[in-house]
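We modelled the chain as a single entity of 146 amino acids. Its sequence is:
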Amino acid sequence: MFLPRYPFLLVRTASLVVWALVAFSAVAWGLRWSASGNADALSPLAQPTPTEPELEAAARSLGALPAAAVAAPTLASRFQLVGVLSGGASQGAALIAVDGKPARPYRVGRVVVDDLVLQSAQGRRVSLGASAQGPATLTLELPAKK
């Protein structure tokens, strides 16, 4: 059996711990009670209004460059002429890539996209327009050989 050398020391220490917990509890409850009574009077001062972060300023401070205005893609930038097979005034075909998709063959007089028809295929150049016999809206040329 364990018998402490100084039994009164154990009692005093336990008593000190209990009274410290009582004092801590009383102070905590007192502060909570006093703060809730003044919450209505101090609420505008106690809670600052949140501000919206300035995302552009933060991006600049981290080294981001300002975004340039994105230009609408031009009609010619949608098409890439890959190959031409000329066969006369109303004959021929062309390999045309539309909107970055793989190139597809089109014959003269066929619709390439919604409102453009392959009008003619001559040498290294093709013409696209609204109709097979109308004026050319767009002329595409093969890239120069390297």
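As a brief sanity check on the tokenised model: The two ends are 101 Å apart (CA to CA). Residues 7-37 form the longest helix (31 residues).
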